[in-house]
Each structure stands twice: as structure tokens, then as C-alpha cells.
Specification:
The structure holds two protein chains of two kinds.
Chain A: E1 8-13, E2 18-23, H1 27-32, H2 36-46, E3 60-63, E4 78-83, E5 90-91, E6 94-95, H3 99-106, E7 110-114, E8 121-126, E9 129-134, H4 143-154, E10 160-163, H5 166-169, E11 177-179, E12 182-184, H6 189-195, E13 198-204, E14 210-211, H7 215-234, H8 242-245, H9 259-264, H10 267-270, E15 272-273, H11 280-293, E16 294-298, E17 308-311, E18 319-322, H12 325-333, H13 338-351, H14 357-370, H15 386-399, H16 403-407, H17 410-418, E19 429-430, E20 433-434, E21 440-442, H18 445-453, H19 474-482, H20 492-498, H21 513-533, H22 553-561, H23 567-587, E22 602-604, H24 607-621, H25 631-636, H26 640-648
Helix pairs in contact in A: 2-23, 7-22, 12-13, 12-14, 13-15, 14-15, 18-21, 18-24, 19-20, 21-23, 21-24
Chain B: E1 3-13, H1 23-31, E2 39-40, E3 47-52, E4 57-62, E5 77-79, E6 82-84, H2 124-128, E7 134-144, H3 151-163, H4 165-178
Antiparallel strand pairs in B: 1-7, 3-4, 5-6
Helix pairs in contact in B: 3-4
The chains are: A alpha+beta, B alpha+beta.
Amino acid sequence: MRYAETGYNLEIDLATGNIERVETDPKLMELHLGGLGTSVKLHWDRVPPETKPFDAENLLVFSTGILNATPAFSANRSVVTFISPQSELLAYPMMGGFWSAELKYAGYDKVIFSNKSPKWVYIWINNDKVEIRDASHLVGKGALETQFLIREELNEPRAQVAAIGIAGENKVFTASIEQGRSSASRLGGGAVMGDKKIKAVAVRGTKNDIHLAHGAEFMEHMMDMTKYINFRRENPIPGVMTILSGIGSPQEMLHTDEKWHTENFSWGNARTRRRGFWDERISEEWPRVQLEGIKRLISCFNCPQQCGALISYKDTPRYMAKCFGKLTYAMASYVDKMEFAWTTLQRATEYGVDSFSTPQILAFGIELYEAGILTDKDFAGAPTDKEGRFVWLLDRVARREGIGDVLANGTYWAAKEIGNGAEEYAHNNIKKHEQLPLKLGMLDPLYYLMYSTNEKISITQIEGNWPQGAFPTLEQREEFVKDWPQLPNEYMKQWLLDWEPRGEKGIPHFPTPDMCCEIVDWMEMLHNIDDACCVCAGMSSFCLKPPYHIHNYPKIISAATGLDLDEDSLKKIVNRSRNLHRAYNNRLGMRRKDEKPPEDHWKRRFPELEEELLSTYYRYKGWNQDGIPTKERLHELDLDYVTEDLEKRGILKDGQD
Amino acid sequence: MAKIKKKIKTITVDADKCNGCRGCEIVCSGFHSIPKYSTINPARSRIQVVFRPLEDIWLPIFAGEYSPAECMGREKYLIDEKNYDECEFCRASCPARDRFKEPDSGLPLRCDMCEDEPELEQPKCVEWCINDVLVYEVREEEVDEEESIDDVEIGLQSLVDKHGLKKIVETFTRMSQKD
């Protein structure tokens, strides 16, 4: 009996049309749990480092996690893995929704796509019946429209469909995979899907029961969690922003006060901070128009949060939205109208593009034009008003027309191609990928490490459980630490108590490099557990005082899977997968030189301290000074086969520290 | 006929509050698995959420009585500019559709309000629903005494309706001999 997982993957060879249901090795769960963990192992075993993003050999893997389809709250993420066309590293964007649960009830843990289809297809997984179907009639259709048309065509309203829009068809590097109210957006999964000519993957599952090893005990844990969720709802964390004070990731559809985001982020392509933006007019208009647009707040599978919404705004076709996309287009374009946000987001969602990178890329294009680096020739035919021009550019990017074809590769690659000083404008990237448009004053040692070293390279990074900044008063700190069971070690409370907003006990020198290592490693570990379980980070790693944490996770996973886990053994499993991921990216060329935040992320930088932070963290992680796991570390994690491979390739040298 | 006191159990569905997480389906299927919570599969749930997100339709429906034959006519509803499909509000497990049938055997499913020993305070779906979409009420009414049909008999009757009594008896006999 396999518990929590189905024990089967679906292998689809797009070149031959061969479809196989393949039983997986039960040992893999003990070694890597599931989700991102087992997917990384799959890529390591099967995709050699010579592989380029658009090679047929680049696998595209849709994976569920170990807790999907169980009653675990918010275990609804699907993790999509592939070598990214943008970063050229192993990317793993995730999406919430219902797709992963449906896949497990159909009887599969992962869908593994190899090679490329000669013509446009979509995949229909209906329990044990799996078909590759013609999608030629869907080419050019929007991502949401495609989902609707497929459900109609299959006469199966309960099918969950993950689809690409025309941006994915055109291999735009920021193309997303859209699914209902959710999307796997970062790092170009939609482009790889488009390259393989998969328009959509539809799934309906009814025949596969998910077995829990100790079901009654599992439910006890969930009932405890319900109590905590209710407690937190009634008792928001004091002293922090509203969006951080409750359960969940910032529920952007629910919250209407956007003073903090709009005034603290740098808009355009991470260029200007707009202090005073949330003035009398905006603070009346934006919340009002936001609420006018929201027809209903909606959740993902088995989730108490309400991060998403059905948007029905005037004549704009209905769509679903979540998160921060409600702000990014209007703010990046300097069109100070919430109406523009709703209408542009609809267009972008149908195109299927990432709403974090894409607005920055468009703003980057406009900035280059204003600086004379791009010319009237590049913008021939563009409207002259801000709104019209921004949307015109979005259309060009999604269709890869004219200058849009260059910008569609993201700011890093576009700047290289455009030259003539464009590189200076592509100033907000880590590992070739657009980051949160945030420009701050003083170097933050914790964020320095998170930004530099994690493989996620995307919006949430690996932050979450540790407060974003020091509390101004000791009373506030005492209040915060007295109710903090999520912390891995009691002594860390003292670090928070000692942490001041400025001065000797403030950033950049405090927390000390050693403390920073422990804090960052803890937060990263939680993200890695979430990603193996496919639990939403909003209920765990990306949330202050979350319902899931290192002390209850081992019990929950053990009750579901039958594994006998404690904190150390769970930590070892996710460290194994995390180091395998790092070694994989090392094989793809990633080194210390790549591990750096944007130059202007902070005004005040401390090169020596930064080097010390990175070196200390590498040692803490068991990596050598080039950021590669050492032989000893790999041995501890039962990854001797990785050492062997890295040594064979000359990436790890014998005796190298 | 003698009068007896009967507990009437109702669940009020405030569909406007539903945000479609389908937690009710999950907990229902788990509670009714044997042993409890050993397996999860919403297709076995006795509550099903009808959802068509772009039409703003999220509608939890509870499994009602098994019906051996489909209705003579079908109904459609138009409420608040939303079109509900044929039979959308119907709670019956019937031959016209797949809803409220075990996905493997096709046996009918019926909401039993989570009958249990000791009795639960409220059905699990009500307890689990975090948005208060489902509100449980119990009241007592005087009703005529009647024979109750238990779940096994309902299941058997549906098999008889589908395959005929003879086939069921033959299969039962053959299975008994195997044991």
C-alpha cells in the first residue's frame, strides 16, 4: 500500500505519442518526499547539463506534492520544473488551484513530458484514460478562454485545465501556465510548454483514493490547525502591516489599503519610489474600483485563505486574479488608474504572462525609448498616450512582434541584444531574472543571503517566518516572542529581542553573520518542506507565525505517509533535495559569481561584510567557497553519486574545500 | 398510524459565502471511509460543490434519496442572471447522471448527516467549512411511524434495479461460495 502518494507517474513522449503509467520506487519518498524533491531527482537522473531550455531533452514536469489531495489545509500547489530559458537553471514555479488534487485522484503523482510534439496538442487525463488531442483549433486563444473551450469540448465542467496563452505559444520568456485563479508564472514554464507544442493539460480524477497511513491521527492535527487558524483570525499579530498580521500570504484581493506597496516599491522598471502616491484621490478611488471589480473572493483547494477573486469589471471579460498583479501594470506604467489595472491584467492573463516580470519588462522598454536607446522606429505605430503605449507594447511582447520580440526575452537578455547602454536599465535582476521592484537604504544581511543563494530566484525568495524588520520598542519585541512556538530554537528569541531598527544592534551588522546563517537556513528549509508537500507557502514558510512549522510538520507528514519522521530526519530529507538542486544548477554553471542581489538594491552596501556573509553561509551549508556542496556534505546526505558526477566533470576537485 | 417524535436535521446552504475550496467534499469522503479517514476521494463525497467560476456559480449540494428512474421532466433555473443547468439543484442519485454515485461500483451515495456513535455535534462538512456556508439545525417534529430502509438495502435495491434480482442472487451466491 502506498500512502499519501499514488505511486505512479505518467510519462508522455510527445514525439512518439507514447503514454505510459509508470510505477515509482517507494524508496524515493523516504529520500526526497515528493513534489519539488522527487522532481529534482528526476531532472538530475534524466536531463544532462548540456541540455538547453528549448532542446527536446529538456523535461517539463508537472508534479503534485506529498500532501496534495489529503485533507491537509492548503496543500494545493502544483510544481512545474524545467530548465528555464531565462535563468538557464532548473526553475520551479508553482501554482495553486485544483489541478494537483485532480491529478492524484486520477492516479498520478507527476506528469513527465519528454521531447516535442510535431503539432499543437492538448492532453486529456481522465482517470486511467489519457489522450493526446489535437489543439490546432485552440492556437491563438487566450489562456483562460482555452480552459473554458476545453471543458466545453470534453463536456466535463469539473476538469481542471492548465493552459498557455499566445505568449507561451510564442515562447515569451515570461510566459505563464494559467489554471483558473492560479498560475505557474515565473521563469518561463509557459515558454517551454509552448516549445513542446502543448497548449493545455486537462485532468479529471475520480477513481483513485488517496490513502492516509494514520488517518484519524492526521485529522487530529488538522483540527488543531483549525483552532489555530481561528485564533489567529481573531487575534491578528500586533505591530505589523495588516497584510502580514493574519493567516496566509498577503491576500491582495481582500485587502484594499495599498499605501505600503504603492509607496515603498520602486515603480517603472524598479526605478522610482512614489512617496505620497496614496493621496486623498487615490486612496478613495483605488479601493472603490478594486471592490467594484471583485465579484467574489475565491480559494484554492481546501484552503481557508481567500487570495483570489473572480473579476467582473464593466465590459472587460470576466477573469480570475490573485496576488499582486492588481497593482503591477498600473504602477509600472505610471497610469494612475485602478481601472487600467483591472483591464490590463485581464489582457495579460489571457496572453498568459507573469505579472511580476512582464510589467517591468514593458516599463524597461518605455524607459529605453525615453532615453533614446530605443527609437521611433522601434515604436512605430505605438499610441502616444501612456495607457495606449503600454498596452501596445504588451501586445508586441506577447506576439513577439518588432521590438516585442527582443523584450520578450526579459530585461537581461534584451539589454544584451539592444546594447548602447541598455544594460544600465536592466538593473533589477538576480540570475538573469526580474526581481521585486524594491530599492532600499541599508544593506539587510538576512535578505542579502536569501536573495543571493536560493534557487527559487523569485518573488517570495525564502523569506517569511522572521520579521522583515526590527520592532522599534522592546515591548513590541517581548510581545512578539512570547507567543512564537514556530521558532526552531528558543535561543533565537533573544536575537529578536536584541535586534534594533538601527545602531550597533541593527542591520547590517546585526543579526551577526552566524545568526543570519541559522535564520536563513531555517526559513529556506521550511520553503523546501512546503515545496515537497506542495503546501501553499502562505500557510507556512511565507507567513509570520504560520499554522505549519517545523514542530508539527514531521507529525503531519508521518501520519499521512507512514514514514517515521522527526525534525532531524525531515530536515535531512529536504536538505538532500536542496543540495541536489544546488548541485544540478552547479552543473548548469551556477557559481559564487552569480550569487548577488542587484547592485542598487540597497543604497548602502558593505562589500567586505557581504563577502563574509556569503562565505560564512557557504560554510554553514557545507558548500565550498564557490557555492558547491562539498564531498563531505554530499556524503552526509547520501549523495555520493553526486560527488562522483561533479568530480567527473571537474566541478568538484579532490581535496578542495 | 402511530405518531413518533423525529429529529429533523437540516443544513442551510448560504451559497453566496462559498469560495469553492471543496473542503466539505474532502472531509466527507474521509469520514465515510472505513476505517475513518483512511482514504480521501471527493468523488465519494455526499456533498458536491457545483462550480462554474466565471459564471460565479459555487453551489454545494447534498446527496439525497436514490432514485431508480430519472424524472419525467427536467428543470432549469435562472437566478440573479445565473443559469443553472438541468437538475443542478437536484439531490438524487439517479440514472440520468454520475453525481452521487460511488466512482467504482456506481452505488448511490446519500448524506446521512454523519451519523455516528457517539453522535456528532454537527456533520463534518459543517464543522470543516471555514466560511460558515453550511449551517446545521436540528428540530423535533411529530411524524407517522414508518419503516426505515438502511444503507445496505438502498445499495442492494439500486443493484437490483440496474442488473435484475436474478443476476444479483447469482453473484451473491457465487461470492459466498468463494469465501
